[in-house]
Design goal:
Number of domains: 1
Number of strands: 18
Structural class: alpha+beta
Radius of gyration: 21 Å
CATH topology: Chorismate synthase, AroC fold
Helix content: 25-40%
CATH superfamily: Chorismate synthase AroC
Distance between the termini: 32 Å
Largest sheet: 5 strands, antiparallel
């Protein structure tokens, strides 16, 4: 059913947008990890609706509860089950669109595949499903920091046609605190103001807008990932492209490599003053041959505009008749600010799995 991700560090998410609760089960998390529930809660707070005027006004505290796998501040090595109750679910708000195939939503395709659809907020197709991912990702980040010294930081790089140039961000020092200084989660104050103005203008017009999230990973050593089907960039792409509204994935120079010559794109090796070798440039984005090379892993995820717009639209109903309708409800005008912890979560989950696979190979 595609509700699980990972092999050694395996995450299974469950729950629907307007059901009783959402959450995850993590199988394979090693015993003895110092488990800080406040870290998990902080990441969920970054993802939750209602946190600013720029996002959905659904009022959820997203308070997390741990049911298993944790005792006396450490993981037990048994399955971790994390639960978040839905406190502000309103399935009745979707009565007006019940029986309609909303444009660019999953209604039609899920109906065709399963013979039934979750008409209340899209069910599992809703971004509400990512609560479980973000909770699991916060656990993965604690594992990565404690066992491997790895840090994952993401930020909003683009909103519509407004772009924060990569050379205006210090990849060695950009931090969660800097990213979270404003509601758009852009670490550059001048661009952050422009992003906010654009999102507000689009919201007032009843429309939505997309953009991109950039992510940097510091501290990944040489050797993580596999050389063929499970290349590290493929696993990262799998995780990030499974996020709702994701539409593109780039590693390193990404699609920009098409406009470069090999002499421009190659990353020359040179002696590392601290020992070993390193690359002078990082067009590869920290991964070569599907395996980490010890440099910063730099990636980018593109997101489409949110499908629910508050303008009159054409569609058909489940009887195949053409209709016009105007959606109502509580939705994000731009998914980007809340997508930052989602991207961090999927990157951390992919890397936690790669770390444990490498540990298993080393034994």
């Amino acid at each position: 059913m595609g509700n699980s991700f990972g092999t050694q560090f395996r995450v299974h998410t469950w729950g629907e947008s307007h059901g009783g609760a959402v959450g995850c089960v993590i199988d394979g998390c090693p015993a003895g990890i110092e488990f800080d529930l406040d870290v998990v809660q902080r990441q969920l707070n970054r993802r939750r609706p209602g946190q600013s005027a720029l996002v959905s006004q659904r009022k959820e505290t997203d308070t997390v509860e741990v049911l298993s796998g944790f005792e006396n501040g450490r993981t037990l090595g048994t399955p971790l089950c994390l639960v978040v109750a839905n406190r502000d679910a309103r399935p009745e708000a979707y009565e007006a669109t019940r029986g309609l195939y909303r444009p660019s939503h999953a209604d039609y395709t899920w109906q065709a595949k399963f013979g039934v659809q979750a008409s209340s907020g899209g069910g599992r197709a809703s971004a509400r499903e990512t609560v479980g991912r973000v909770a699991a990702g916060a656990v993965a980040q604690q594992l990565l920091r404690q066992r491997a010294g790895v840090e994952v930081v993401a930020w909003v790089e683009q909103v519509h046609d407004l772009v924060l140039p990569l050379d205006r961000v210090d990849l060695d020092t950009v931090s969660e605190a800097l990213v979270d200084a404003g509601p758009t989660r852009c670490p550059d104050p001048s661009l952050a103001e422009q992003f906010e103005s654009r999102i507000q203008a689009v919201r007032q017009a009843g429309d939505t807008v997309g953009g991109a999230v950039r992510c940097v990973v510091r501290g990944v050593p040489v050797g993580w990932g596999e050389p063929v089907f499970d290349k590290l960039q493929a696993t990262l792409a799998h995780g990030c492209m499974s996020l709702p509204a994701s539409r593109g994935f780039e590693i390193g120079s990404g699609f920009g490599a098409m406009q470069m010559k090999g002499s421009e794109h190659n990353d020359p090796f040179e002696p590392d003053p601290e020992g070993g070798v390193r690359t002078r440039t990082n067009h590869s984005g920290g991964i070569q041959g599907g395996i980490s090379n010890g440099e910063l892993i730099v990636l980018r995820v593109a997101f489409k505009p949110v499908s629910t717009i508050f303008l009159e639209q054409d569609t058909v109903n489940t009887e195949g008749a053409a209709v016009r309708f105007t959606p109502k409800g509580r939705h994000d005008p731009c998914v980007l600010p809340r997508a930052v912890p989602m991207v961090e979560a999927m990157v951390a989950l992919a890397l936690a799995d790669a770390y444990l696979c490498q540990q298993a190979q080393a034994r």
